[in-house]
Design brief:
This protein is of the alpha/beta class. The chain has 32 helices and 25 strands. The strands form 4 sheets. Strands 8-25-24-23-9-20-22-21 form an 8-stranded mixed beta sheet, sandwiched between helices. Strands 10, 13, 14, 15, 16, 17, 18 and 19 form an 8-stranded mixed beta sheet that branches. Strands 1, 2, 3, 4, 5, 6 and 7 form a 7-stranded antiparallel beta sheet that branches. Helix 5 crosses helix 11 and helix 25 runs parallel beside helix 28. The longest helix is centred in the C-terminal third of the chain and has 41 residues. It starts with a helix and ends with a helix.
């Protein structure tokens, strides 16, 4: 951006404006063309697992099982709707960014002042800045009169930032005080907000759970298709009629594909979302609930998340306490209303500390705090002839301007000994990461206003850690989750708080400046060892997230400013604060309403519980699927009739996906839930697959053996099938019991579901009308005893597996 001296004085000419608008475009954000809602909805069906489920539903309908077809389609529809809602919401982040664009701007053009539509701003324009307004583009200041800005929408830090000539200010910053002029450096997509808009519009990455469920669906579907083809061929070669063979194969396909998985997944995640909302954690993307459970690293802001975001006086040193408190009350621009600070937070903390002092003096002048002087001075009318000058600010600067010391009313020359004592006290407070403020006064004289002062004391302030923050950090450590602090605060302050919370132990501390000077390779090599990031710019959070994710971590990142949005979107789980900007919230996966780190830890616990329950359901369903497949294939290979007819196979499927499976999705948390490392692998680990296979084999061997035994004692085929069919159902019910959580919470819903399924099976066996549909017959007491004993072997097998398979 170049401007000649003349344009700085008079502004751009009309011709220059037209020329630059052609070159640079308009001051607006380019928006990726929104996908039409109908296309967005239909695109949710482009999924292999959902496609197979739709085929299964059609197959079930084709053989007359309307109920099963309906259940499958309901599960498909639920998943499609949830996916549609999530993608629709992701477009909202862009809308929030567009709302930040200031609608009008006051500019100097052709040596005249004009108010224009801010879209017409171009590079090189001179913008007039006034208190109460907003910055319409990224500017370089060319004039600044006590000009301070609130850049919290960009940085998340609420402190007023004083700016001087040549400083840069960003689009959407609020002008808190003063006035000035700036020359436009960047507009539209080239501004800081524009860069963020570019990232926010990028497509979301798949969550770990979505990837795992997709892999699981593909694996099971391939197995199901291969087995169905094999059974179809085997039965055909045995001379079974073609139509009957086809129906058996299709029924087996329906039983083998876990169409209950999406329904249970949706139900489990939705209930988890509801539970989290009660703890002030609003989850915006359903699958992100589980991602929290897999989290290996939390990158947390310090201010307001780990700390109170409330500066508090925690230490003091007085040579005259009464005088210091009076200065603190009068040389102060903060207001306390309903215990809340309005204005500068440091001023507010001092005012709260001095609130009981009774003094009222008329203020007749003020020299505001600025970044060069690091002092604030007010002048008050003391009597008809004298004025009282009160000053507070950086302690070393205050001390350097003092000629005297007020020793409890005795005014003495401040000698080297006094200075040494006070300097030592300043160092002690600074070493504890306190923000130290010095206080002084004088009766106005001929000397410059801020010279020849009388020292009265020091106050040490800090933003204290939240009450339960350390406990939450300890809980993360126990759960194998690293906590890294990322703050814009000073290194010394960050280290003190991090040590107090147990975050900084034996790891590294790095500043944003040091980070900037490193190559990507150098940073990647040490990223996992860094425990505290200080003086970090929000834009650097993106680099931190990428490095940690590249190391194989599941990263949760907190943020609240517009500038945090890219990192929140890039993180495995973006966590926005409740009082953050709308853009941060729209880019995040979760919003913590109470800004509390403890809430994030509670959400992680809920995420782990959900992941456990999904595994519980998968282990239950897949082991039963494997058992059914092995039973059918085994019987065919042994030249036995098939132990289940197509209707019974479908009933087994309804029982599997019915009450027991649904209630496994809402089991309580395991006792050791937060005392084990995060699980980042596939749902079907080698250990889980081994357990599933052994369970399936036990069910298949028991069912085939009892089926063969019934034939050997001359039972009718209908009787043998009824015994085998009922035995397999009982296997499922005991298998559901095996999967219950080792929890302090009751499993009453699971027990009720098991009882309900058992009652339904009894009705199928003994009610004549149902006997006709399912081709069953009544069982006697001894047959029931045999069924219960054999089915109980699955419980014994599970207990043995728990001890043997590690």
């Amino acid at each position: 951006m170049k401007s000649n001296d003349n344009s700085i004085q008079t502004g751009l000419t009309t011709e220059e404006v037209i020329e630059r608008q052609k070159k640079y475009g308009l001051n607006k954000l380019d928006e990726k063309k929104a996908t039409p809602l109908i296309i967005l909805f239909l695109s949710q069906f482009v999924d292999i697992l959902l496609g197979l489920l739709i085929v299964a539903a059609i197959a079930a309908y084709a053989i007359g099982d309307i109920i099963d077809a309906g259940v499958i389609l309901l599960a498909v529809l639920l998943n499609v709707i949830m996916g549609f809602i999530q993608e629709y919401r992701s477009q909202k982040a862009m809308e929030s960014l567009k709302d930040l664009i200031v609608k009008t701007a006051v500019v100097k053009r052709n040596n005249e002042i004009h108010e224009i539509n801010s879209e017409e701003l171009t590079v090189g324009d001179i913008v007039i800045l006034e208190e109460g307004g907003k910055v319409p583009a990224d500017l370089i200041l060319i004039e600044a009169n006590d000009l301070s800005f609130d850049e919290s929408s960009m940085t998340g830090e609420s402190e007023a930032i004083l700016k001087n000539i040549d400083d840069e200010v960003y689009m959407d910053s609020n002008i808190l005080s003063g006035n000035g002029m700036g020359i436009v450096k960047n507009i539209g997509m080239k501004t800081k907000i524009g860069e963020i808009a570019q990232i926010v519009q990028e497509d979301d990455e798949e969550t770990p759970l979505k990837t795992k469920v997709g892999n699981l669906g593909k694996t099971l579907s391939i197995i199901a298709i291969l087995v169905c083809i094999a059974v179809f061929i085997l039965e055909l070669f045995k001379g079974v009629p073609l139509v009957e063979t086809f129906m058996t194969a299709v029924s087996l396909a329906v039983a083998a594909i876990p169409e209950g998985l999406p329904a249970v997944l949706t139900l489990t995640l939705a209930l988890g979302m509801s539970q989290m909302a009660k703890s002030d954690a609003i989850v915006r993307k359903l699958l992100s609930v589980e991602t929290l459970g897999s989290c290996t690293i939390i990158c947390s802001d310090k201010t307001g998340t780990l700390t109170e975001n409330r500066m508090t006086v925690v230490d003091s040193y007085f040579t005259n306490e009464e005088k210091t408190l009076k200065i603190g009350k009068l040389c102060n621009n903060a207001i306390i209303a309903n215990e809340e600070v309005i204005g500068n937070q440091t001023d507010g903390a001092i005012l709260k500390y001095c609130k009981d002092v009774e003094i009222e003096l008329e203020r007749i002048d003020e020299i505001p705090l600025d970044s060069n002087r690091k002092m604030m001075t007010t002048t008050h009318s003391l009597n008809d002839k004298d004025n009282l000058v009160l000053t507070k600010g950086a302690p070393e600067i205050i001390l350097g301007k003092c000629k005297y010391i007020d020793n409890n009313g005795n005014i003495e020359i401040i000698n080297d000994k006094f200075k040494e004592i006070i300097s030592k006290k300043i160092d002690e407070m600074s070493d504890k990461a306190l923000r130290v403020i010095g206080f002084a006064y004088k009766i106005e004289d001929d000397a410059p206003l801020e010279e020849g002062l009388t020292f009265t004391g020091l106050l040490g302030l800090m933003d204290p850690p939240k009450k339960d923050a350390k406990k939450a950090v300890d809980a993360c450590k126990k759960a194998g989750i690293q906590v890294k602090m990322i703050t814009g605060d000073y290194k010394k302050t960050a280290c003190a708080i991090a040590k107090e919370l147990g975050i900084l132990t034996d790891g590294m501390v790095i500043t944003g400046e040091e980070l900037e000077s490193m190559t990507l390779e150098e940073y990647h090599n040490i990223a996992n060892d860094i425990q505290v990031y200080a003086r970090v710019k929000p834009a650097q959070k993106m680099m931190i997230v990428e490095a940690l994710k590249d190391s194989g971590n599941i990263v949760a990142m907190t943020g609240d400013g517009v500038n945090d949005a890219p990192a929140l979107k890039k993180a495995s789980i973006g966590v926005a604060m409740g009082d953050g900007t709308d853009v941060a919230k729209e880019s995040a996966d979760m919003v913590v309403q109470n800004n509390d780190f403890t809430t994030i830890v509670k959400a992680i616990k809920e995420g782990r519980k959900i992941y456990d329950n999904i595994k519980r359901f998968v282990k239950f369903q897949v082991s039963t699927n494997v058992g059914a497949i092995l039973t059918i294939v085994g019987s065919s290979l042994l030249s036995l009739p098939l132990p289940f007819n197509p209707v019974q196979l479908l009933w087994l499927n309804i029982v599997m996906d019915g009450p027991p499976a649904q209630t496994l999705g809402v089991e309580g948390a395991e006792r050791d839930l937060m005392e084990r490392p995060p699980e980042t692998g596939d749902i079907l680990t080698r250990k889980t697959l081994t357990e599933i296979l052994i369970s399936g084999i036990v069910m298949a061997i028991g069912t085939i053996a009892v089926f063969a035994y019934e034939f050997s004692i001359n039972a009718t085929e209908q009787k043998a099938m009824t015994v085998a069919f009922t035995l397999f159902v009982m296997y499922q019910l005991f298998n559901a019991y095996n999967r219950k959580a080792d929890s302090d919470a009751s499993s009453k819903y699971l027990y009720l579901a098991i009882i309900l399924s058992f009652v339904l099976q009894v009705l199928i066996i003994y009610i004549p009308q149902l006997q006709l549909i399912f081709r069953t017959t009544s069982l006697n007491l001894m047959e029931w005893v045999m069924i219960i004993i054999v089915a109980f072997t699955i419980v014994v097998a599970d207990k043995l597996m728990t001890r043997v398979i590690k």
